[in-house]
Amino acid sequence: MKISDLLGTCLRNLSRRKLRTILTVIGVVVGTCFIVLPISLGIAISENNQKMLEQWGDLTLIEVNNYGNTETSLDDAAIDAIRMIPGVEVATPIMQMQIQGSTRIFAGRKNRYQWYAWNVTGMSADALSKLGYTAAEGRMLTSDDEGSKKLRVMFGDRTAYDFEDTKKRWPNNRIDYWSVEEGGELPDPFFNPLETELVYQLDPARDTAKPLTYNLEVVGIFKGDYRRGYETVYGAVMDIEDMKRIQKEYEKANNIKKDKDAAKGYENVKVKCITMDHVAAVEQAIHDLGFVNTYSMEQERQSMQESARQTQMILGFIGGVVMIASAVSIMNTMYTAVIERTREIGIMKVLGCELAQIRAIFLIEAGLIGFMGGVMGDGISYIGSYILNLIGSTVQEEGRRGMAEAFVTKMSIIPPWLAVTGLVFATLVGVISGVYPAHRAVKVSALEAIRTE
Amino acid sequence: MKTHAPPREVIISVQHLSKIYKVGAERVVALHNINLDILTGQVICIIGTSGSGKSTLLNQLAGLEKPTSGKVLIGGRNISAFTEDQLARFRQRHIGFIFQSYNLMPAMTALENVQMPLIFRGVSKQARNKAAKRALKEVGLAERMRHKPNQMSGGQQQRVGIARAFVAMPRIIFADEPTGNLDTRTTIEVMRMMVRMSRENNQTLVIVTHDREIAEYADRIVTIRDGVLIEDKLNKSLADRPEDEQAMLERETDPVRQQEPQGETGATPSSPEQEKATSELEEYSPEDMREQRSGQ
Predict the structure, then answer these.
(1) Closest CA of chain A from B240, distance in Å
(2) Same domain, yes or no: A52 and A65
(3) Count of structural domains, chain B
(4) CB pairs under 8 A between A and B
(5) Measured in whole angstroms, how far is the alpha carbon of residue B257 from the centre of its chain?
(6) Which end of chain B is more exposed for a tag (fewer CB within 10 A), N or C?
(7) Residue B152: strand, helix, or coil
(8) Which residues contact A374 (CB under 8 A, 6 or more apart)?
(9) Interchain pair A353, B88: CB under 8 A
(10) Would you call A17 an interface residue with chain B, using a CB distance cutoff of 8 Å?
(11) Which residues span the domain enclosing A74?
(12) Angle between helices B110-121 and B125-138 (to 10 degrees)
C-alpha cells in the first residue's frame, strides 16, 4: 500500500465515526493544553527571572577575587590559565591604584577644577568592548593607547560633573545635574573632557616628597551602565599596564616597600563567558585552578530556575495525568474500532492486505487522533497564552504605571519548539495507544470474512 | 495400481489433506484425506450439503486456514507452509475471492471497492482507477461506479464483488456460495458472468455451493460428504474436454492414490488476453507463478 492510500484509508475510517473521533480528539486537546500551557508559564517565569537578573548585572560575568585563595596568586599567569578555559570569552584583571595620599585630576586654567579621583580603574583596554562597555562620546580605549606620551583614559558619563570649582564654595561649587528630571536635558559640565587638557596628580605619602603628575587625555566617555560597573558612571578607566607603571613610579618616588605578606597578584579579575550556559562550567574550572572566591549571577539564576522548574513540574504532572486519560480513551476508541471492523479486517486479509498494512492502518488512525488533538491543543494553548498575557499586562500596568518597559513581563511564552514538542508528544501518545488495538487487528482471522451473518 | 505423469496444467494440487477441529474434548473431522488436482482454466464446482466440509476445503485451498495434515500446492508451491504475510502477498497476486454476502466495504463506492486488491498491491491511483473501471464495465455496472453498496441490489453488489475478484487478473478465483443470497434469475446472470470472465482469461474458477443447479455451469463437479471426497466427474454437457483431463479425472477418483512428485509442475503462462489486459496496468507486471517460485 502506498502511504497516500494508507492515509486516505485512515482518514476515511476516522470520518466514518465522526462523533467518536471528535470526542477522543477532545481528550487529547485537553491533554496537550495541560502540558503546553504549564510549560509556557514556566518558560515565562524563567525568562522573567533572567530579565530581572540582567537588571542586576551581566549574567555571563564571573568575578574572581584574590582573597581566601591558598597557595595561588591571581597574577598574569593565572589570568592566562583562565583565558584558556573553554567558554571564556575574555578575562581581565581589575586594578585600583594603591596610593597613600590622595589622587586628583585637574582641569582648567590654574587647575581651577578638580576631581578627587577615588575611582580610577586599570583594566585590559582590549577587554572593554567584549565586556560590553560602550562609548557614548569619543572612542573606546584600546591597548594601542598604552604607554603613550599623555596618559590616555576613558571617563564615566558623570565624571565630568563630579569636578568641583575650587573658586566657589559648597554647595555652589558643582554643576547641578541631579535635579534634572528624567529625560530632561543635562546642563553642560564646566568643561568638555574630550577637548580639555587634564592633569593627574598623585599626592605624596609624606609631605617631604613631591607629588607625581601626568598629563591626561580623555579619549572617550562611557555610556553609563551600573550593571557593567560603577566606573562607567563616576570613574575613569586606564590600561592596566599604564596603571602598573604609575604604581611602580609612585612607590619608587615615595620609597614604599611592598608588604611581603600581602596577597600577590591582582585584587580582582573579571571573566566573561561566551554564553550564560558556560558560566557554571567555567566557574567550576576557575575553582579547580585554586581560585575559590568567585562570584557570578549563576547561583541566583539556578535557584530561581529551580523554583520555576518545580512549579512547572507540578503543573506538568497534572498534564501527564490528563494525557494518560486521553491515551486510555484513544485505546478504547481504537479497540472498539477493531471489534466493529473485525469482518472488514477479515475481508481485507482475504483480498491480500498484508499484516504490516493492517497494523499500519490502526497505528496511523490512532496517531492521527493524537496529531489532530495535538494541533488543536497547540492552537488552544496559543489562544490561552494570549489571554493570559492580556490579563497579565493589564494587571502589570495597573500596578507598575510608569515603570520602564523592561519590567513589562509575559505570563506565558510558547516558543516554536514547545508547540512542536506538544504536537509530537500528542501524536506519539496516539500511536502508542494504538499499539495494542493494532495488534488485535493483526490477529483477526481471515476466516471472519467467510462467516455469513 | 495406475501411475500417471502429472499433467502440465495442474494449478492446484491437494494432497492427503485432512482437517480436524477440536471442539472441547471432541475431535470433529471436517476433511479426511482429500486428494484433488485442479487444472488451469478449469471451472470446478465443489458441492456438498451444509456441514459436508466443502467450505473448509475452500478455506484450505485459499490458504485461509492451515490443514491438520497434508498439503495444498498452488503452482507447485506448498501454501500450507506459507506464513501469513506470504499468503497475503500470494493472494494479492494470484487469487481472487467472491463471497456469498458480497463483503463490499459499505463506506466505499463500487469503484473504490473494486480497487481494493490493487491498493494492497501498491498500484498507482491512475492505473487502478482505469483497471477498476474496465472491470466494472465488464460486469455491466459502468453506470453505477459512484454508488455505494447500500444503493445497489444484491445482484449488482455481487457483480461489484466479481469485478473486485477479477480486477487484479488473478490466476485463480474462489467463489464461496456466490449466489447464495440471490434469486434464480440473478443467479443465472451472475454464474454466466463468472464463468465467461474466467474462460476469457483462462483463469481457474473454484466454486463452492450446495446448489446442484449451479454445478451445471462447471466443467467438473466434485462432491463432498462428511469430509470425504465421494465423487469427481466432468460435466456431461461439456464432454469435449481434452483427453488428459479425462485421464486425470480417473486418477482423481482412484481411492488409493500414489504419492506423486509434484515439484516440476508449473503453471501455464498467462493467456495472450490476460497478458494484454494486465500490461495496461503499468504499475504491476503480471507476475508469473514461476517467477514467484524462483523468488522464494
Answers:
(1) 34
(2) no
(3) 1
(4) 76
(5) 24
(6) N
(7) coil
(8) A28, A32, A422, A423, A424, A425, A426, A427
(9) yes
(10) no
(11) 61-296
(12) 130
Query: B172 near B203, Cβ under 8 Å?
Result: yes
Does this model's pTM top 0.80? My answer is no
- Among the candidates A264, A296, A328, a domain finishes at A296
B5 pLDDT tier (thresholds 50, 70, 90): very low
Say which CATH number the domain at B121 has: 3.40.50.300
Half-sphere exposure of A324 (CA within 13 A, CB side): 5
Q: How confident is the model at residue A418 (pLDDT cuts 50, 70, 90)?
A: very high
The sign of the torsion formed by the CA atoms of B207, B212, B215, B220 equals positive
Interface of B with A in 89-128 (CB under 8 A): 89-93, 95, 97, 99-101, 103, 105, 107-108, 116-117, 119-122, 124-125
Do A424 and A379 sit in the same domain of this protein?
A: yes
User: pLDDT tens digits, residue range A350-373?
Assistant: 998 999 999 999 999 999 999 999
- Reported as a single tens digit per residue, the pLDDT across A401-415 is 444 444 557 888 899
Cβ B104 vs Cβ B253: under 8 Å: no
Q: Give the Å distances, CA to CA, from A7 to A12, A349, A369, B113.
A: 8, 18, 12, 17
**Do A147 and A99 belong to one domain?**
yes
B31 located within any domain? no
The reply to whether residue B176 touches residue A450, judged by beta carbons under 8 angstroms, is: yes
- Chain B contact set for A452 (CB, 8 A): 100-101, 177, 180
- Is the CB of residue A19 less than 8 Å away from at least one CB of chain B? no
